Write the structure tokens for this entry.
Amino acid sequence: MTNVLFMGTPEFAVPSLKALVKAGWKVGAVVTRPDRPVGRRQVPSPPAVKRAAEELGLPVWQPERVKDGEFLQRVRDLAPEVAVTAAYGRILPQELLDLPPRGCLNIHASLLPRYRGAAPIQRCLMDGQDRTGITIMKMVQALDAGPIVAQEELAVGEEDDAGTLTERLAELGARLLVDVLPRWLAGEIEPREQDESLATYAPPLRREDEKIDWSQAALAIHNRIRALRPWAGGYTLHRGKVLKIWRTTVEERTGSFGAPGEILVVERSGVLVAAGAGALWLHQVQPESKNRMEAEAWARGRRIETGEALGK
């Protein structure tokens, strides 16, 4: 039976690992990132892939460096026919890419060559795309630039955020992997090169990506917020303190509403704020050092009046 080396770290990779095992593939080892401290108490926490692998009874390797000679020797001793990676989080050295006879296949959450990089799901949502998908490619040293083995599209729903879209793409990637892998190993698939002229990039999210610019259009702000949900959230300032914004909708009426960031309406359904174009309803917010709450409750509790501005 074919020996597979699996490499992945977050929850996105778990469905693919489980699908391989369920389909009867021999996963010789699972490689994931080392446990890292999380939370205020900095308690060491295992990656999602480690937890899943242990539940499946699979050996787990957690090298600090994939270029380490001892780790590479372990891979040689394992002698995998193919490696499969999904959001592992590190660039693999050429020596490792060359070890499996059938190469290393990567499950990437975009329709390459669009959105190469670390945050394809979030950047796709920020850009307001209505379609994305999964690409399985043969890995090369260049970032997400390897030849395409298979692709499948997925519609982005209006209610999707980074959490829901990640879950749906993870399931699609798992299904596509188990469909493609037998044909890839049998030599039935001829990968096609990516069109470099169409390449776009999805760099990692940074703190500045979370800051809301009220001069942007309401739809652009709404797309940014849903791209950051449920993990980071967008933020603005109110009375000099940070206010996180978790859930919004775009006001259906068009036209001029007021100065960007101006609070226009406070009512039970939410708080309406003017944007550079259009206006945005805030439904769920989180004041600094507080829990999430309904926007109307926040506004009433702070005695916010129309005409006040966010962003200051």
Notes: Helices lie at 14-22, 48-55, 69-78, 94-97, 120-126, 162-185, 218-228, 295-301. The chain has a mean pLDDT of 95.
